[in-house]
Amino acid sequence: MLSRKPIFPGIIELNFQAGEVLGCNVYLVYDGDEWILIDIGYEETVEDFVEIIRQIDFPFSRCKTLVATHADVDHIQGLAKAKQLLKTSVTAHPNAVEPLQSGDTLITLAEIAAQDLKMAMPAVEIEHEVNDGDVIEVGSLKVEVWHTPGHTNSQLAFRIGDVLLSGDNIYRDGCIGAIDAHHGSDIKAFVSSLERIRDSDVKWLAPSHGPIFANDPDLLNATIERVRGYLKMADFGTLAESWPLMDEWDEEVASGKLPDGLS
Ligand SMILES: [Zn+2]
What we know:
Blueprint: E1 11-13, H1 14-18, E2 27-31, E3 34-38, H2 46-55, E4 63-67, H3 73-76, H4 79-86, E5 89-92, H5 94-102, E6 111-112, E7 117-118, E8 128-129, E9 135-138, E10 141-147, E11 156-160, E12 163-167, H6 187-199, E13 204-207, E14 213-214, H7 217-230, H8 244-255
Parallel strand pairs: 3-4, 4-5, 5-8, 12-13
Antiparallel strand pairs: 1-2, 2-3, 6-7, 9-10, 10-11, 11-12, 13-14
The structure holds zinc ion (ZN).
Zinc ion is lined by residues 70, 72, 151, 168, 177.
């Protein structure tokens, strides 16, 4: 038996617990004997995580559900296997149901043909759908569900007291979860989700990758400004809403303007 290393009362992060980074952050939220897992990571690390849970003495039969923060392969590839081992249910946002139940390799980014990347995406049945404002009860603990679209359209965050399990919304260095049209990114929605986090009275952000950090308005503002800029940048392809250079080009074509020194 190992002693538990909660990061907040009722919240254990399994990589931190293990003293070793095995994959994405996996949060075990508990009260008494009852517990849930938020994300599980890749299939190949499921047994390691389950072994950690055994060593810190949580009865498998009291796992209420496995929760997906969103339908990206690095968070949920192991759900089917974990579900089998723990004999429990799976919970996700409605937008994650179809990709998870069909094992969609494109939406989950398990397959990126241009990079020769092809991972398995085992299909898993979703028993419970949760959406913004829902509460998941774990013992007497209330886990408040936030829908925070932007990175993907299924991204959830979970508030427990002063702490937000903040998913792929923002990391300690101000980076954000990948913006990619294939898994349903939306830059405007991303800005709104980040503003919601900034404007809340949540004190701590416990992200899906990397260390926990304070909900600091300066960090959030710098990231929001950067992400808002993406709306007008060709870099983001179909996810940008406009490209101001094309308006300038219209005018310059109409007036026959060339750069100074060329005409
Ligand atoms: Zn993701």
